[in-house]
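Dear support,

We are seeing what looks like truncated structure output for some complexes. This example has four components. We would appreciate it if you could run it in full and send us the complete token output so we can diff it against ours.
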Amino acid sequence: MLKDDIFTGMITLTEENYLKALYRLSLETEEISVKDIADSLDIKMSTVNSMIKRLAEKKLLRYEKYKAIELTEKGKKMALHILRKHRLTELFLSKVMGLGWEEVHDIAEQIEHIQSDLFFDRIDEMLGHPKFDPHGEPIPDANGKLPVFKATQLSEGVINKKYKLTGVLNHETAFLKFLDSVGLSIGSVIVIKDIQDFDRSMSVLLNNKSKTIFSQTVCENLLVV
Amino acid sequence: MLKDDIFTGMITLTEENYLKALYRLSLETEEISVKDIADSLDIKMSTVNSMIKRLAEKKLLRYEKYKAIELTEKGKKMALHILRKHRLTELFLSKVMGLGWEEVHDIAEQIEHIQSDLFFDRIDEMLGHPKFDPHGEPIPDANGKLPVFKATQLSEGVINKKYKLTGVLNHETAFLKFLDSVGLSIGSVIVIKDIQDFDRSMSVLLNNKSKTIFSQTVCENLLVV
DNA sequence: TTAAATTGTTAGATTAGTCTAACTTTTTAG
DNA sequence: CTAAAAAGTTAGACTAATCTAACAATTTAA
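Here is the complete output from our reference environment:
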């Protein structure tokens, strides 16, 4: 029974949280330090120090005294798996269960640790295998691979190309209500018909039906792919 | 920080599992012993012994050396709260997410520990505030109160009374398919029109529409209220 | 370039949850 | 009624995850 988990690849909830933090940090900084992790998880450096030694033994990261910390491929894959579960859960709570976007994060932090492929695959299916969460962040697929493209702002778009709405950067009620009022929701098709040079506003065609004008601010807050 | 949880009423996942086991055992036996708990959770008696001392300190159960163990009102309330979350989750996984009844239990064992009233209240709402799970077991309400009546078997029913299907005792695919084929699902209305003395089969009216005959076996497996 | 500040490491303690082993009390069967 | 079996208890050890406190290495700035 001792050190069973090294053989089974089993991982504790706490270890999952370290991996997730490690992955997030790897996107933000070149070199991940013990302090970065301690700050991001709000625990002491000494605690981090002992934990990374354990994770290194499990081959989830590479670590040498006083050097920067790096996830291994195995560690990265596990982190992406948790991230996938987190993002799918957030989308599910919001789209299927109708919870507010500000409410879903804390619940998703708990549900992301549920061990059941069945459960998350079904969520994925019910959501139509989404590639991005409403923040525009990519959702890793079941194999832990990230989509190559990240969603971009509509304000970066070009005329006459078909875009699909995948998320928004502004989550205020007022903005979401505005989107509602023009008939926009995740998955809507947007085609830019014209761009006004003087104020960067755009004439757009929505879902091949209604035509309207979006200000630069609106365009910057719409994530498309 | 020391003994914080005694003040906050916070409870660990493990403690929740003890409470749940205690409650289940209290329905099965008069006197709950250390051994009962050890067997039901598959841990050693010595472990149970130390844990019940902790739970007693937290006023979740009453314990004296060599005496039977009893949940306090507070402990019972917490146990019912977990039970509510478990049963609501099972129903949700099955009815909303379309998972098979054999698959939902293990997932529900994990999700029942999620801390979020919002989440479970929303599930409750989406399910239409169900009073019974598909096993016919009552679901405690948000205040931890159990419905007074437990579902009974249709085979115990009387002629011309309106019954509502709340669950089944047999969860085999074949039986569930049969129910499907006659148009029965949770919530369906059943009225017994006649009972045959010689084989205890019943002529029944379903949803005020179709009339059919159920064998005694079928009636015994239908839970109604 | 060296002293101060920051960051990292180690040692040792604590708590939750578990175990084994030794011992005690209660229950049960002859 | 008593001896054996079953159940219960205690003591002591272990792991995971955390902490504090002391000390070491590295980085930064005067």
